[in-house]
Amino acid sequence: MEVLLNLNPIDGNNSGFIENFQKQTPNLKIHLYGNEEAIDAPSARNQLMEKFPNFTWYLFIDDDAYYETKYFQEFSNIIKKYPEFSIIGGPNLLPPGSGDVETLSDWFLKSWFCGPFRRRYQGQGEFQDVNEAELILCNLAIKKSTELKFSKELPFGEENELVWRLQQAQGRAFYSSKLIVYHFRRQDLLVFLNQIFKYGLGRGYFLKIHPGFFILGSFIGLIFWLFINILLSAASIPILIYLKKNPGRTFFGAKLFLPAWASAAYFFGVLWGIFKKI
């Protein structure tokens, strides 16, 4: 198996990443490619697929994530067993030894509060014909034959929009918990909530450029759920004051109200994405 390693940009700051990649995959033939100056992420991915059309699959893994040594062997087994699938993804799990805030963030991400999105973080089972919400770009492979490109209109959530377009064209997506990537979570709670806001923003942009995906009932439910979470978030202010005076109970208190805070952040992001000019 040959692997083309694309870096955006390719410079001295990437040396550690390249060295780790080579150590993790000693049996792979690695080709190195990159831009001298960074360009926007969707363009970098599209450029990779355009300049190297002879590769069968294009795999995207974030530079703050790392995979298990057997990752590529598992991937090879899956594409041989399921040649009919054109998009394959797996979970991004919490790295061992993560801190309290990272563990708290991970608890929320794989909880029922996140609906179908939680599969990205759970790492359980194999599922055929999953929807776009169950896959994430930090662990996603796209078959060359799809001839799809990432949308430059979306600064966030562009992989979900691409998978959705693929499925509209009768393409099929596969999820396997054997394709494990460990992805570091945010170490600060406010930074994590900002990340959730951006997830919502991407979903809002998605709804804007594909109004056919928009369902009135979902919008009404969105407004209602947002209202409930605003009330819960407001009600938690006295709790936050108490927790500040009693730091030993901060983790429990944050876990108690994190679903309300994160849900409010997400839905504000969705609404902002729908009405904001891209």
Tell me the radius of gyration. 20 Å
CATH class of the largest domain: Alpha Beta
The CA-CA distance between the termini, in Å, is 40 Å
- CATH topology description of the largest domain: Spore Coat Polysaccharide Biosynthesis Protein SpsA, Chain A
Number of domains: 2
For CATH, the homologous superfamily of the largest domain is named as Spore Coat Polysaccharide Biosynthesis Protein SpsA, Chain A
The count of DSSP E runs of length 2 or more, i.e. the number of strands, is 10
The CATH architecture of the largest domain comes to Alpha-Beta Complex
Question: Can you give a write-up of this model?
Answer:
With 278 residues, this protein is α/β, with parallel strands linked by helices. The chain has two domains: 2-183, Spore Coat Polysaccharide Biosynthesis Protein SpsA, Chain A (Alpha-Beta Complex); 189-275, no CATH class. 48% of the residues lie in helices and 14% in strands. Strands 3-8-5-9-7 form a five-stranded mixed β-sheet, with no helix packed on it. Strands 4-10-6 form a three-stranded mixed β-sheet. A two-stranded parallel ribbon has the order 1-2. The longest helix has 26 residues, at 250-275.
